[in-house]
Design brief:
Pfam families: Acetyltransf_1. InterPro entries: Acyl_CoA_acyltransferase, Bact_Acetyltransf, GNAT_dom. The protein is of the alpha+beta class and 174 residues long. It is 32% helix and 21% strand. It contains six helices and five strands; from the N terminus they run E-H-H-H-E-E-E-H-E-H-H. It is globular and about 60 Å long.
Length: 174
Amino acid sequence: MHENNHSGEELLRIREMIIDDLSEVFHIGEELFTAEYSQSLYRTWDEYEITTLFNSDNELCIVAEQGERLLGFALGTTVKKHNSPWKYGYLVWLGVRRELQKLQVGERLFKEIVRRMKDQGVRMVIIDTSANNKPAINFFMKHGFDNIQEHVYMTLNLSRRHKKKAVKKHERAS
């Protein structure tokens, strides 16, 4: 059932992702999570990421649609740590088509996934993003996230030979 507004346009609807959405969600993510945008997200965005979350926590895999068109998605999971009374929600991916960003689609997806996490007993939601992704940081801060922790992300390309840097004598002595 689609809702219509007074001008006859179909309204945005948030719903649980179904198997027929997997391909389109993947392609939206491919457009968003590029190597130019973020090396780390580009490396981890793949079809297995979506199918794994869909198979393990499908109630936390949601999409925004208008008519027959998918506008964005949110994919999450929950984590229960051993010896901890707390259950954590992890918002793994939140993506909205570029041309539709700033139109409240991400906000609607975020609010719905948080509502679903609360229903599952989650007491804290965790997200991560690149330290230079200012729009995402601002979005999440606007929604109450704080306690920003920076972490170091490093890579080692095993297909290239690495030369060890020579240690100067005076550096060794200190």
